[in-house]
Design goal:
Helices cover about 30% and strands about 20% of the residues. By secondary structure, it is an alpha+beta fold. The termini are far apart. About 20% of the residues are buried.
Length: about 300
Amino acid sequence: MSANLVGTEQTRCQELALSSSFYRTIYSEIEEVGWEHLVRLGEDLMFLSFHIIDNEGRVHIMEIMLDKTYPKCPPSISADVPYIFNLEWSINSRLKDVVQQFQQHVDKLQEFWSTMDDIDHSLWVIDSKQAHRATPYRLINIDEGNECSVMLFVDANDPRSLPECRFMGSDQKVNLLRKIWKRNCKRWMNDKRLPENLANVLEIQLPGPPGVQKNDQQNECGICYAQFLPIDDELGAKSGSGTDYTCDNITCSRTFHSVCLGDWLRSITTRRQSFDVLFGNCPYCSEPVAVKINTKK
């Protein structure tokens, strides 16, 4: 056997050994995180995505790209957040450390997302389909005639503080609103909701989301089409209760009984389960949904 052929075989064996070691490492580290948290895994194991649930039941996905030299080189991460955290990494770090740091980052952003959800559900957001977890701004219509709007820029680290704003509309209306804002911005109180503060500072009644009416139909469950669950001992504390889950997609905002949504998720093969939480997609708009289920018999 020639020297060149021997060298080639040695190189191939070394590459296979390294590849096998890499696969074992990744599978072991996924096991540490928990397979129930895994959303996607690339065929070459260089791409992974994990999900976590925040305190409000919102689902967050983090994507991870690994380098061939992993773990010597830190992974690249991306997620639907207003800014990415600075990953602390060493040669001894593992995927569970990335997930833990992402969880800590998500925890810090709870008040920001609650503020943005409040805006989306209380005010008339223009181009609401562009409103994602990562966007720290909203374009708000501030009059029924669609003649004036304001772009709000919310500080992700201090979401209750006075936001930056940019008024849009005719010169006359914009100049008037700027004067009112400058005169009244000291009225802003960090312990109040943003929509309430905004109306107080601008001295106007802000229009709500278009087409939203607070009537019985709006509160009907999108699965059983009833406003209230039946009176039934088997339902326990849920017996006779109204809808208690709303789709996060503001263009959908379909309401459900969590019991009905849980039963529906159980009936589809694409569902995933982590402990007492079922994951799937809204039956109306395919927005990710997560609902706690009662595991007690």
